[in-house]
Amino acid sequence: MSRFLARICFLAAEPRLIVELERMAASSQGRSINPMSIALGSRSLAKAVLKIGGTLGIFVWCLFPFVWLIDTSLKINDLALNSPNLFEGPIGLNNYLSVVQQGFIYNLRNSFVVAGTTTALCIGIGSLGAYAVARLRLRRKAFLLSGVLALSLFPPVALVPPLYEVWRSADLLNTYQGMIVPYVAFTLPITIFILTNFFAALPVELEEQALVDGASHLKAFYRIIVPLAAPGLASAAILVFVYAWNEFLLASTFAPRDLDVQTVPVAIASFTGSVQYQRPIGTITAACVIVTIPMILLVLLFQRWIVAGLTAGGVKG
Amino acid sequence: MHLTQRAHGSNGGSRGRPHGWTLSEASLARLFLAPSVSVLALVALFPVLYAGSLSLYLYDGRDREGFTGIANYAHAFSDERFWQAVLATFTFTGSSVTLELFIGLGFALLMAQAFRGQGPTRAVILVPWIIPTVIAAQMWYFMFNIQPGFINHSIPLVPRDFNWLGQKGWTMAALIVADVWKTAPFMALLLLAGLQVIPQELYESARTDGASAWRRFLHITLPILRPTILVALLFRTVDALRVYDLPKVMTNGTFGTETLSMLVERYVIQTVNPGIASALAVMTFATVLGVSLIFVSFLSKNLLLGSRA
Fold it and tell me: What is the ipTM of this complex?
C-alpha cells in the first residue's frame, strides 16, 4: 500500500511534469523546421498540465469515496451520523468491534466458501469446454460461441421466480449449493469465452508434438495447455471469484437471513441498528472497509490479469 | 488444424496402446463440452422455459388456482406500478449509459496518452469496478443522505438540508451519480483497449498534414473505435437494464426508483405470486433480449464472433 501511495505521489510530483515536458519538447524539436514550433511549445505545456491534471482527476474520482468511507468508519458513537466534517474527532475502532460482534466473520467465511467453490467448479468445467471449442474438431463452433455469448447477456432476475420454486421444493434455499449452482451457470459463458481466446492464441506445435509422441488429448490438455494458459486461467478465475463474491440478487433471495449461509453483500445490505428505520452508519462503513481493503490489494496485485480478462470479453469479442 | 487431425488419427488408430484414446476427436469434444452445456441448459435455459410455463397459471400466494392464459401479463400491463418500473429502468439506463460513455471516453483518451503514470492509473480505475455494488450503494446513500450530509456540506450552493433521497427526480439523480461513478471507469478500460490498437502512424501522418486534434479525433479515433464503443455500449446497456443491487440498497425503490428487476423480486418474496413474478421475469427477459438484438444488428457478424471462432 505504501509503495502504491508513493507511486501516486511520485506521479503528482514535479519531476514527472519536467520529464514529461522534456519528452514533449524533444519530440517537437524532431520537427523543428515547422514554423509553428514555438506555438507548439506552449501548447505542449498546456497539454502536459491537462494530462497530469486529468490523471489526478481520475485518481480523485476513483478514490475519494473511500477516503470518506474510512474516515466515517473510524468516527465513534453518534459522531459518524452527525458530523459531515472529515477532520472532526474523536476517532476509534469501536465500529469495527461491533461489526465483529455481529458475526461478520461468518459472512466472510460464507462468501469465501461460495466464491471459492464457484471459481473452482467454473474453471474446471469451463476450461474443458473452451479447449474443445478452441482446439478440437467440432462442427458449428461459431454457433456455439455466439450462443455462449448470448447467454452472458441474460438477465439473472429472469431465473429468480422459477429457481426459487425449484429450490424451495428441493430444499436448496439457505444452502451454499443453492447459490453456487446458479453462480457457476452465470459465470460459465464469460469463462468459456476468455479461455477460448487464450487457448486459441497458444502455439499449436507443442501440443502436436505431444500428440505425435502418443499422449492423449486429455493429457496434452493438462500437461501442456493448462500450464501455458495459466495467465488466462488466472484472469478468468479472478473475474469469476469477484462475480460470486459481489453477487447480491440471488444471495439475498435464496439465503437472506441465516448466518450459516448469508454472504457478505447480504449482510452489508441488512445490518440493523438500535434505532428502527435508521441504518447504523458506523457498523456499515466499518464492514465496507473490511471488505474493500483486501479487494483494493487484489486489484493492485492482479491488475494485468484482470484487465486482460475484461478486455478479452469486451473488445476481442 | 489438419495437422492435429493427422496426429490424432495416427493415435486413435493404434488401439493397442495402453494410454491411447479410442474416442474420435469429435466425440471427445462433445465429452469435454458436456458439463458446460448441461449446467447451462439446466440452470439457465430450463428455468426460463419453466418461468414461461409458471407465468400462465393463476396463483393465490403459493397455491396454484389453475390455468389462466395471459391473465398475468394483462394484470402487469394494467398495473401502474409496472409502467412506473419500466419508466424508471429506461430513465436509469439511458442517463447512466450516456454519461458513462462520455466520461469513460474522456478517461480513456487521457490514459491512452502514453506516459508513465499508466500502471497505477489502470489499477486505480479498477477499484470502483471491483468493489461490490452493495458497498457502493451504502457509501453513496450515506454521502447523499442529510445525515451526516457529506455532499450537502461539500458542494457549494447546495442547501445544507437538501433531501436528495426524499423527493422524486433527485432520488433517481443520486442513483445515476452512484452508477456513473462505479461504471464509467470500467467503460474507460474497455475503450482504452480499443484505443491502444490504433496505429500511431495514422496520427503522425495526420499531424504532419496539419490536422487539428479535434479533426484527428473525429476522423481517425472515432471511426476505428466505433466497434469497441458499440460492444461496450451493448454490455453496459444490458447491465443497466437488469439493475437491481444499487436501487435496492440505496433507495429501496422509493420515489420512482423501483426497477423491473426489483418488481420481479417483490413478487417472489414480499407479495408472493409465482405467476405474476414469472410473467414479469419473462417480460424483463424479452426487453433485454430485444435491446441486445438491436445492438447486435449494428455490429457485423464477424466482429461478434471473432476471427478465430
Answer: 0.83
